[in-house]
Amino acid sequence: MLNQSWQPRQTHMSATSTNGKEPLIAVSRLKKAYRTPAGDFYALKEIDLQIYPGEFVALAGRSGAGKSTLINMLAGIDRPTAGEIVVNGHAIHRMSEGELTRWRGREVGVIFQSFQLMPMLTCLQNVMLPMDFAGLYNSPKERSARAFYLLEQVGIAEHAHKLPSAVSGGQRQRVAIARALANDPTFLAADEPTGSLDSKTADAVFEVFQNLVAQGKTIFMATHDRELASRVSRVVRIDDGEIVKDTQLHR
Ligand SMILES: Nc1ncnc2c1ncn2[C@@H]1O[C@H](COP(=O)(O)OP(=O)(O)OP(=O)(O)O)[C@@H](O)[C@H]1O
Ligand SMILES: [Mg+2]
User: Fold this and answer.
1) Which end of the chain is more exposed for a tag (fewer CB within 10 A), N or C?
2) Helix ranges (DSSP H) in the chain
3) CATH class of 25-248
């Protein structure tokens, strides 16, 4: 079983300590301006940030502080106005749209508050979709086996053949996490992943993240939830587009 190609790809970034390691993500002098009728609005003013392999980082800050904007920059969903973003050796600020799309499909797992599953596809098919797009894991059979394996990892394999509308919110978010893991990404970027879940369900989803970090994944998660933010390894606080606090909690 272990040699099957749908098992995680090997990466050179599997360490769980920052000591003496190169950052997995290095952001320097990052700025993001949105064009508005009133002129350019700088949602990110000058961000410098390094995230190391194996870190579980919460991005905290009030509404409008710039959390989603920063997550979107690191996930290659939106582009910076100025500055540099290097992820696992890739200078993503220099990539063309096409390169960025391909890079994102293979290197980042993104999880949103609203799950964003395809309603007409089963849970299993939703998890297979990124593999289909990236052309990874050769045959449909391999992709389906890997998708099933990932649904098992997040504890909902029994719902594999249901539509998202037939499972609960917490289960949908687990499907979204399994989908984010589909191509065995370098890191996971999550934007308020527990924002629409009750506290008990949020806790269970958070545990899935903790397990992934224990397995060596790196997670950057925007959250409003102070309780959850206190349980990660590091909290970066952003206010008005600037990092105002950066706290290591434990490791
Ligand atoms: N497309 C846009 N055009 C103009 N301004 C925008 C745009 N997107 C976001 N902004 C502004 O940028 C700032 C940061 O927004 P962002 O969505 O990153 O905040 P946030 O910290 O994620 O907030 P929330 O906690 O409410 O999700 C806000 O002032 C917002 O109004
Ligand atoms: Mg947001």
Assistant:
1) N
2) 67-74, 97-107, 123-134, 140-153, 169-180, 199-214, 226-229
3) alpha beta
Residues 175 and 159: their CA atoms lie apart, in Å, by: 9
- Pocket (CB within 6 angstroms of ligand 1): 34, 36, 41, 43, 61, 63-69
Given a contact cutoff of 8 angstroms between Cβ atoms, the answer to whether 106 and 9 are in contact is no
In whole angstroms, give the CA distance from residue 202 to residue 210: 12
User: For 151-183, what is each residue's pLDDT tens digit?
Assistant: 998 999 999 999 999 999 999 999 999 999 999
Placement of tokens 């040699």 in the chain: 3
From the CA of 64, how far away is ligand 2's center (Å)?
Answer: 7
Structure tokens at 4: 């099957």
Contact 194, 223 (CB under 8 A): yes
- In this structure, the residue with its CA closest to atom 30 of ligand 1 is 64
